[in-house]
Amino acid sequence: MTKDTIYRDILLEHARHPKNSGRLKNPELSATVKNPLCGDELEMTLALSGELIKDCRTIVRGCSICQASASIMSEMIIKKSLKEAIKTGRLFDENLREDNEDVSEMVEPLRPFLVLKSHRSRIKCMKLAWDALEKCAHQDKSKTQT
Question: What CATH number does residue 10 fall under?
């Protein structure tokens, strides 16, 4: 089995059986984002406990790459601070833009997506859940400033 085959199988598993799918009833933060290029839509709801992300749910209407990314991201950010989760997303973005295959331990679970980064049109699909997280973080900042 090649590395690419293993990565493809991981992504397909998350696309077919997404983790943390759905919507929280009373989320502290929520965001809806769209990818007009692919037609993907993603809704994210977050429950916080202080600075920590207590729960994350996503509803994805879109391609399997977007679904897999939301599933993996949701597993990664639960029990992390919102700040740490945002940092992870930004590191992932850097890895998608660089030619280097080395990744920090923080973004290691996202390595299967790096195989797809040569398909430039799919990068937005990979990042859509992270964009929703950023949008939630901006809401959190605006709440604490009022």
Answer: 3.90.1010.10
